[in-house]
Amino acid sequence: MNDGPRISLDSALTTLARRREQQVVVATMTALAPWRAKAGTDRDIGCVGFMGGASTFGLGIALARPDVPVWIIDGDGSLMMQLGSLVTIANAAPRRFLHVVLHNGVYDTSGAQPILVEGTVSFTGLAEAAGYARAVRFDNVESFDAALDELLEVDGPVLVELMTQATGAGYVTPAPTETRQRHALALAWPALRDALAGA
Fold it and tell me: Does the N-terminal or the C-terminal CB of the chain have fewer CB atoms within 10 Å?
């Protein structure tokens, strides 16, 4: 793994935001709030309270609406929780599916503990072995920006592993008390449904 300079979360999300059109975007953990602030629309759904579930949420949307491109903004620690999703996605072979993994090497929201086998794990390698149509790793935002338009044209699921900086977000309380917060995911579905109704 690369021990040199890493991509900032802001520059990674800015690169994606410049291509934002009518995609459904499923974001999770530390990327969720900054993505909403930068490029959020009613076609977003946040994966909250279900660590590792972003890619399978996105797969369900892609299978229900194969005419709509789906982007996943995932975390390395999150994806570690459900690595089996990679083979499920590859087997389903959604055609317009971009799976971005922010690989910062730590569980950023729970105290920055290192993810398991950090330094050797390759999410690109895992996706290739699972059967994704393409899997590419980027160590700098310029290369990612230059390659992204071509990757968005690939027929089949694509995984992009971005070597990013930890945000230092710190511990996030896992059990909010407000009813609206507890059911934030359920409350978000109607907006997405309505946004897709006329598409």
Answer: C
Query: If DSSP codes are grouped into helix, strand and coil, which group holds residue 6?
Result: coil
In a domain, 2, yes or no: no
Q: Do 52 and 79 contact (CB within 8 A), yes or no?
A: yes
Inside any domain, residue 138: yes
pTM as predicted: 0.85
User: Contact at 8 Å (CB) between 159 and 83?
Assistant: no
Q: What is the CATH number of the domain that holds 82?
A: 3.40.50.970
Per-residue pLDDT of the chain (199 residues; tens, 9 = 90+): 445 668 999 999 999 999 999 999 999 988 889 999 999 999 999 887 777 899 999 999 999 999 999 999 999 988 998 999 999 999 999 999 999 999 987 767 666 676 677 778 899 999 999 999 999 999 999 999 999 999 999 999 999 999 998 876 654 444 444 444 555 666 666 777 777 886 5
How far is the CA of 57 from the CAs of 113, 116, 124, 195, in angstroms? 26, 24, 20, 17
